[in-house]
Write a structure and sequence with these properties.
156 residues, alpha+beta, Aminopeptidase, seven-stranded mixed β-sheet, 7 strands, 34% helix, globular, GNAT family N-acetyltransferase, transferase, Acyl_CoA_acyltransferase, NAT_camello-type, GNAT_dom
């Protein structure tokens, strides 16, 4: 790829970046929902303290992408891949792919056997990435998000 991208675990240093990188795409295509506000304003309490993980992609040491693994409450799933966002200024550099591969690897490392995600069909590049990572479309389970019109799962 040639671009100096590093993936590092989340720390409080990246709290604003985690929120801002997600708000950027959510506001562009949809509107903020209550579950977004909870997760994005309280990543430590909502994600990390529950056994989740957040990856941060750094380009020249500046946060340009984020992705989270949230412990899943749905039967049969260990984690939800969630809150993946890459800065519009850094798209097309393969950062989403690196984040996705990192997050899937982390899920395996944590002993997960199956993960799922929710998205929207308008986000074609994201859906294409998820398919390349091995995710397959699945039947709808109840979602806290109005914008969710597709759900996918990955057997690890």
């Amino acid at each position: 790829m040639g671009v100096p991208v590093r993936i590092v675990p989340y720390s409080e240093t990246y709290k604003n970046a985690f929120r801002e990188l997600n708000e950027e795409w959510i506001i562009k295509y949809f509107e903020m929902e209550e579950m977004d506000r909870i997760a994005l304003h309280n990543p430590k309490e909502y994600i990390l303290d529950k056994g989740g993980y957040i990856a941060v992609a750094l380009l020249d040491d500046k946060p340009v992408g984020v992705c989270a693994l949230i412990p899943c409450t749905h039967d049969g799933y260990d984690f939800e891949l969630s809150k993946m966002g890459v800065s519009s200024k850094s798209q097309g550099l393969g950062i989403g792919k690196l984040l996705g591969q990192h997050i899937v690897g982390k899920a395996k490392q944590l002993g997960a056997q199956k993960i799922f995600l929710e998205s929207n069909r308008v986000l074609a590049p994201a859906l294409s990435l998820y398919k390349k990572l091995g995710f397959k479309e699945m039947t709808k389970i109840s979602s806290p998000y109005t914008r969710s019109d597709i759900q996918m799962e990955l057997y690890l």
